[in-house]
Write a structure and sequence with these properties.
alpha/beta, Nucleotidyltransferase, domain 5, 6-stranded mixed beta sheet, 15 strands, 25% strand
Length: 248
């Protein structure tokens, strides 16, 4: 386990971590999950990250952590769905100091994108791939010929006068009790706008709802191929570890 990079996925309800075998793109040990503290301030999350690492004392490789925010050089630049204290926080420095390890943070959707293009549904795909994560919001990752273009934030496009994720995220489907057909209409509108702006070769849809892809993806009326993610809930942890290994 010692040589494996370590990935941590910071989500709204749980923070998950595990050492990752980067040759296989999968966990090298059973992951541990800790409930996300309320409020999820940077200091509170730093404490949980230290607790997760304590579960794997033999794992001494690079450490990567996802955050649901724009990330520039390790600094969080937004906080659409998390505590506002994150804005301007040097998360790389905070987590590294709290754990005594070299830690590198990455946007959560970008981590999922890295995992899918390296090990999953977008592996070997040339040209532009757009990975979207449908959850509380809509995360996005732009990947061109295997190279990540970070912090795209396409969930915040203004479409029909609305912030796109407020209408088309999985949280909107749940809050409004939309049928799969009703939600698919909103997703068609969202993906058709993104399609027109970027002309991608492939869309990959991740997030927890991707396990139900057969209920809604076939209903989308767009020209671009669109497929479910293959790493499902492993993508954040795997992508974070991969990012950290490359950053190191």
């Amino acid at each position: 386990m010692r040589a494996h990079a370590f990935g941590i996925d910071f989500g709204g309800t749980g923070i998950k971590g595990a050492p990752v075998d980067l040759e296989r793109g999968d966990f090298a040990a059973v992951r541990v999950r800790i409930t996300t503290p309320k409020p999820a301030t940077p200091a509170a999350i730093a404490a949980v990250i230290g607790e997760l690492l304590d579960h794997f004392p033999e794992s001494t490789g690079a450490v990567g952590v996802t955050v649901p925010a724009v990330v520039r050089h390790g600094v969080a630049g937004s906080a659409a769905n998390i505590d506002p204290a994150w804005v301007g926080t040097d998360a790389d420095a905070l987590f590294s100091e709290a754990t005594g390890r070299e830690v590198h943070v990455v946007n959560d959707a970008d981590a999922a994108g890295l995992a899918e293009v390296t090990y999953g549904a977008a592996r070997g795909q040339r040209g532009l791939v757009i990975v979207t994560t449908l959850g509380t919001g809509i995360g996005s990752a732009l990947i061109h010929d295997g190279v990540l273009v970070p912090s795209s934030e396409l969930g915040h496009l203004e479409i029909d006068g609305y912030d796109a994720e407020s209408r088309a995220a999985n949280s909107a489907r749940q809050a409004e009790d939309l049928s799969w057909e009703q939600w698919a209409e909103r997703l068609t509108r969202y993906y058709s706008v993104v399609e027109r702006l970027f002309s991608p070769e492939l869309f990959v849809v991740g997030g927890g709802v991707s396990k139900d892809a057969e209920h809604f993806l076939p209903l989308l009326d767009i020209a671009t191929p669109i497929v479910p993610a293959t790493l499902l809930n492993r993508a954040g942890v795997v992508g974070a570890a991969l990012h950290a290994a490359r950053a190191g």
